[in-house]
Amino acid sequence: MSLLVIGGTGTLGRQIVLQALTKGYQVRCLVRNFRKAAFLKEWGVELVYGDLARPETIPPCLKGITAVIDASTSRANELDSLKKVDWDGKLCLIEAAKVANIKRFIFFSAQNVEQFNNIPLMKLKYGIETKLQDSGIPYTIFRLTGFYQGLIEQYAIPILENLPIWVTNENTYISYMDTQDIAKFCLKALQIPQTTNQIFFLSGSKGWVSSEIINLCEQLAGQEAKIQKIPLFILKVVSRFFGFFEWGQNISDRLSFAEILSAENNFSKSTFELYKMFKIDPSEIIQLDDYFLEYFIRLLKRLRDINFEDVQKQKNLVI
Ligand SMILES: NC(=O)c1ccc[n+]([C@@H]2O[C@H](COP(=O)([O-])OP(=O)(O)OC[C@H]3O[C@@H](n4cnc5c(N)ncnc54)[C@H](OP(=O)(O)O)[C@@H]3O)[C@@H](O)[C@H]2O)c1
Fold it and tell me: Which N-terminal stretch is annotated as signal sequence (predicted)?
């Protein structure tokens, strides 16, 4: 089976690519910058030029492809790209997939997407879900929560750098997931026919509130967080001025994310039944505390190595 991955350079996409290669799939990645994607080529991926914001570049990328895995989304720093990438580009991708007779199309959406028409990315995601369902292409849609990887930028780095962390008075539990585990589900979907034409809510096995994540980071970093509390309703008012939504990256994320958190939602809904269907043992799933522990151990080791190199350099200078 040959796969076309879109978003292979991204946080989730690269995990999908890595696991797909390990499983022996032929992997092609649609990329818009070969230099940035050089690491994928080193892993054994075939790179093809394509840009979702330039629809004419999409159809040739699908030649000889069996399944499409779309893990792309517009980058938060490319301000005018939201509609071009997450709507126009995706519509063109679905159309091209139909023409190419693609046997499975995997798309990543977000939890509670149907409830947040006021958030542009959520609205577009929901629209694309519908278009994909109507396309006649065998599909699998995963509705995701936040990624562990996003929590590093949101909590761990600010604590380490003594920068403020914004928290609201919200107390919602969120079952974040490691992208390695999401990738596992994604690739299993290709092997399990019952996952065709289905929408799955994927989330981790344990819900976390932000204060627990902060405590965990404080313990591991041996440093206290500078917490800035802001009432949720103020965040909501401010968020009206930010029309853009992109998870875990800039201020508008935090604002829109807060809005999602404030609603009745099922973020922490258990996905254990799913694990059975996907033949994934829940004990294989990486827990957030283990993920953070590994991150801090790696970081401390790096800092020690840098320190060691500096001492060596100084010794050499003295000699
Ligand atoms: N992050 C979360 O917490 C979260 C939560 C729920 C759902 N999701 C969804 O999960 C999926 C993966 O998210 P992620 O956080 O891994 O994404 P990401 O790290 O932001 O990566 C985005 C990917 O899309 C590519 N891309 C952007 N614009 C493009 C264009 N014009 N043409 C072709 N490729 C383009 C990027 O390529 P470049 O490297 O060239 O920029 C990159 O590979 C997305 O659909 C996202 O909406 C994410």
Answer: none
